[in-house]
């Protein structure tokens, strides 16, 4: 994966369709949602970090700024054949570095329950009660940058 590049893109960038495809395949299709369900209302106001090689998007993570100090990390996905090889952690670290550079101090996220340990390894802590989203159990998590 040494030849995998990480770049921030915007909707309309040549890699954006690849990002949407990855998000659909990894995060929405397995839950029975359609491709139309992939976009968020705050898509255009969010940071989109993609991992890509040879024009193929292999991973992504998004961040929606909610105020001057923080916001929500969302749509964290790594292509199924590459999971467990460090790309997800690399994406989160690179996003956090950019957020610090921009002056953000807090990140929160909606973690799918089985993925809570992934975020805990990256310094995120669970808060609040368990809840359901997109039909599956979730936990709120946060960290200070
Ligand atoms: C969750 C996901 C983004 C993690 O990315 P990844 O590239 O597979 O994870 P990494 O290889 O970078 O893992 C980093 C660390 O977290 C651990 N980890 C990753 N997923 C884990 C899981 N589900 N449970 C426990 N530990 C996990 C890894 O073992 C690794 O530990 P280490 O630092 O001790 O080696 C990826 O597996 C994925 O896309 N899953 C499906 C979509 C999804 O659930 N997204 C999150 C929505 S909230």
TrEMBL record:
Domain N-acetyltransferase residue range list: 7-145
InterPro entries membership: Acyl_CoA_acyltransferase, Bact_Acetyltransf, GNAT_dom
CDD domains attached to this UniProt entry: NAT_SF
Xref: Pfam families: Acetyltransf_1
GO terms, molecular function: acyltransferase activity, transferring groups other than amino-acyl groups
Key words, A-Z: Acyltransferase, Transferase
Superkingdom of origin: Bacteria
SUPFAM superfamilies per the UniProt record, alphabetical: Acyl-CoA N-acyltransferases (Nat) (SSF55729)
Protein name: N-acetyltransferase
Species the sequence originates in: Corallococcus sicarius
